[in-house]
Design a protein that fits this description.
Layout: H1 3-6, E1 8-11, H2 17-21, E2 26-29, E3 32-38, H3 49-66, E4 74-81, H4 87-98, E5 104-109, E6 120-127
Parallel strand pairs: 4-5
Antiparallel strand pairs: 1-2, 2-3, 3-6, 4-6
Helix pairs in contact: 3-4
InterPro entries: RutC-like_sf, YjgF/YER057c/UK114
Protein name: RidA family protein
Organism: Paraburkholderia madseniana
Length: 130
């Protein structure tokens, strides 16, 4: 096993797709944390894009905490929306979470997501101060 693989901290979500797809909710290697695309929990199935985005931010903050990191360590986000008309609502939730940090970010529209009710998904990258 390489030293990089040995130093890898996997942070699981416990969700069923981790075993189906063979991935982890997040992986930390050294100071770098990569959080997989995060969607709102199923309890938000009927929620609007803003509410789903706020729920996603809460999940991201939880994962950051599990990695002994915080929102202040986030350097990049990639935001996917199913409807570009939701961009402003999603951007509002992003700003509320990352206003003081201002990570690099990309927002793109996609045709679909894993579940038809999902309106937004966010990938997150963070680097801890060394």
């Amino acid at each position: 096993m390489s030293s990089t693989l040995a130093a890898r901290q996997k942070i699981p979500s416990g969700g069923p797709y981790e075993n189906v797809f063979g991935y982890s909710r997040a992986v930390k290697v050294g100071a770098h944390l990569h959080i997989s695309g995060t969607c709102a929990p199923a309890v938000h199935e009927k929620s609007d894009a803003y509410t789903q985005a706020r729920a996603i931010m809460a999940v991201i903050e939880k994962v950051l905490g599990e990695a002994q990191m915080s929102v202040a360590d986030v350097v990049r986000t990639v935001v996917y929306v199913r409807d570009i008309n939701d961009a402003e609502a999603v951007a509002k939730a992003h700003l509320e979470t990352f206003d003081a940090v201002r990570p690099a970010s990309t927002l793109v529209q996609v045709d679909s997501m894993l579940r038809p009710w999902q309106k937004v998904e966010v990938e997150t990258y963070a680097i801890a101060d060394e």
